[in-house]
Amino acid sequence: MRLSDKVEGPTLVTSAQYIGKALPMLPHSISLRLARKIKVDPSGCWLWTAYKTQNGYGQFSIEGRGRYVHRVTYVNRYGPVPKGLTLDHLCRTRHCVNPDHLEPVTNTENVLRGEGWAAKNARKTHCLQGHEFTASNTYVSWGRRNCRVCKLTRNRAGYWRKRAARRPSDLELVERVVQ
């Protein structure tokens, strides 16, 4: 079985020839241990079936130390991850350990490619009231983008509310004149 082969349903990776091509730099004993815990699914992901961290990443013990399996397979295939970069799962599957599905990127790029709140907010093009986030209509306060039009609207409403609270009512004015 090769990486390019199409697979019908998840398949346990057991072929020694496949293991040798997929993980050529690791010692054979480690390659076999890894291969027994990987299933290849139809999308091409190598799914880790053994221990996963709380965040869903596969972990494996090498020389008594826990290692992230996706990092082990990447380093084995392409060499060390460049300093200052982190591995992004292009397939968006955290327990995928296929080195072809990993790309070294900055942490910021990795976060913005994800599905967390920071990524979702960064993809927004308009405020909640529908005003477009443009350079002239946007300001940043406390790390958040804010709409200038909405702020101006809030400030004007507050001004008129306070002014109305200070200003006497028409009935009070009539009473003052009568007295």
How are the secondary structure elements laid out?
Layout: E1 11-12, H1 16-22, H2 28-35, E2 38-40, E3 46-48, E4 59-62, E5 65-68, H3 69-78, E6 86-89, E7 102-105, H4 107-113, H5 117-123, E8 138-141, E9 144-147, H6 148-166, H7 170-178
Antiparallel strand pairs: 1-2, 2-3, 4-5, 6-7, 8-9
Key phrases:
alpha+beta; Homing Intron 3 (I-Ppo) Encoded Endonuclease, Chain A; single chain; 18% strand; disordered N terminus; 9 strands; 2 domains; 179 residues
- The average pLDDT value, as a whole number, equals 83
Summing up helix and strand content along with how strands pair, one would put the structural category as alpha+beta
The helix fraction, in percent, is: 25-40%
Q: How large is the radius of gyration?
A: 29 Å
Distance between the termini: 101 Å
Q: Helical element count?
A: 7
Instruction: Give the overall shape, derived from the CA principal axes.
Output: rod-shaped
Beta-strand content bin: 15-25%
